[in-house]
Design brief:
Layout (H helix, E strand, L loop, with lengths): L1 E9 L5 E5 L4 E5 L9 E5 L4 E4 L1 E6 L19 H11 L7 H14 L2 E9 L7 H12 L5 E7 L10 H11 L3 E5 L8 H15 L2 E6 L3 H17 L6 E5 L8 H12 L3 E4 L10 H7 L3 E3 L16 H11 L5 H19 L22 E4 L4 H7 L4 E5 L2 E5 L2 E2 L1
Helix pairs in contact: 2-3, 5-6, 6-7, 9-10
The structure holds zinc ion.
């Protein structure tokens, strides 16, 4: 079964028709010339087509999207936010499952079909948050591909039983093992990272580590991550999220970026407004995979985030100071194909200036945006979207199909 999307403009280029099967783009044809017998026809209405968004760093278990606005009550530091979340998550107006399912629905309607969500496992919540995220994934299994990270937000060794809980989460369906700030949360970076990588070896899974630690401390933790990646032959299986330590334009940071490229350790960023922006152009030029994410959304940590990856793409472009069209396009490339290449290491790495993801053989994962051009779409963030997953429309104009 094929789908023919007529009258679309890949990356804002000339109008064409695109033929999809459930796996990939199988033909790009002049308007009106694609074979339509036995095909589902979708009128693209002149929209810009780009690869679907990949939200590669989100927390579906903690969002409060769709619920009454709730001001932050935690103190600014990380551990205070962790404990404030712990004190309040149970009293949310909706269950973790309902909140995660709704947040995933919003991501899909805004054009994301690839998501990597962390699911917190800790001594307080046990596996309840993981189960909510897994249930959301199941509900939307025909609309998006979702990876789940078993995420020990409060550290692995501060409280008893968390390592066993993390292992259980991996048994129950989490795809990757997480970690967080090896020096400042567990305050024992070697033990923390040895545990993370031991779990990865035991379960044959990838690793995705939150690294908020700044400057020299973060670079030290990063060196322990690269050391283990190299020693265990895990090149291509590791992701570092945030990596604020790379925001400093130092020789040490640039050397670390080159080592990430060598070991195919990917990065995710949420385009933060503080902590300094990552040098995206240098990271891409070095050959490091990088994708964009929403992180928390209207949760106990942050009042920001709305589920719209095009909105977050604007934020990436804004915080990078982009004004020229090729740079705006590149922000969209990070948010779409860049994240795809983080999740699927068989996918090609980004090249600045290229507009990836819409050639014959590329995945049948698209978002259609009602905009003059790709760059104008980033700036205007128009509401009219069509989301295509596995070659069929799964959401249109804000509604699931
Ligand atoms: Zn996070």
């Amino acid at each position: 079964m094929h789908t023919v999307i007529t009258n679309i403009r890949p990356w804002g280029g000339p109008l064409c028709d695109v033929v999809l099967d459930e796996r990939s783009v199988v033909e790009i044809a002049a308007v009106g010339s694609a074979p339509t017998s036995d095909a589902t026809i979708v009128d693209g209405a002149g929209r810009v087509a780009v690869p679907s968004f990949s939200d590669v760093h989100t927390h579906l278990d903690s969002n409060r999207l769709g619920l009454p606005f709730r001001p932050c009550t935690g103190a600014p530091d990380l551990m205070s936010r962790i404990m404030d979340d712990r004190a309040n998550w149970r009293s949310a107006e909706a269950s973790v499952t309902d909140r995660a399912t709704y947040a995933l629905q919003r991501a899909i309607t805004f054009g994301a079909t690839r998501v990597r969500s962390h699911a917190q496992v800790d001594a307080d919540s046990g596996l309840a948050k993981l189960e909510g995220v897994l249930a959301a994934r199941e509900t939307h299994r025909d609309r998006a591909t979702v990876e789940v990270v078993a995420f020990p937000q409060v550290g692995l060794h501060r409280e008893a039983g968390v390592v066993a809980l993390t292992a259980e989460a991996l048994r129950l369906g989490a795809d990757l093992v997480g970690g967080i700030d090896p020096c400042s949360i567990d305050r024992d970076p070697v033990r923390h990272l040895d545990t993370v990588f031991d779990l990865a070896e035991r379960f044959g899974c990838g690793v995705d580590i939150h690294l908020h630690e700044p400057g020299a401390l973060g670079l030290f933790s990063l060196s322990l991550i690269t050391e283990r990646t190299r020693a265990l032959g895990m090149a291509g299986s590791v992701t570092v999220s945030h990596a604020f330590c790379l925001a400093e334009a130092s020789t040490e940071a640039f050397r670390a970026i080159d080592e990430l490229a060598e070991l195919d350790i990917a990065l995710t960023t949420i385009a933060p407004g503080t902590h300094g922006s990552l040098p995206i152009r240098r990271i891409v030029d070095a050959g490091v995979r990088i994708g964009l994410g929403m992180d928390g959304q209207r949760d106990y940590w942050s009042p920001y985030g709305n589920g719209d990856m095009l909105d977050r793409t604007w934020q990436l472009a804004f915080t990078q100071g982009y004004t020229f069209e090729p740079d705006l396009d590149s922000a969209l490339a990070v948010a779409t194909w860049g994240g795809h290449a983080v999740l699927d290491r068989a996918a090609s790495r980004l090249v600045h200036g290229e507009r990836p993801g819409l050639r014959v053989g590329d995945p049948a994962e698209l978002v259609l945006i009602d905009a003059e051009s790709a760059a104008a779409g980033v700036l205007d963030r128009p509401a009219g979207r069509v989301t295509v997953h596995h070659g069929r429309v799964v959401a249109e104009n804000g509604e699931l199909r």
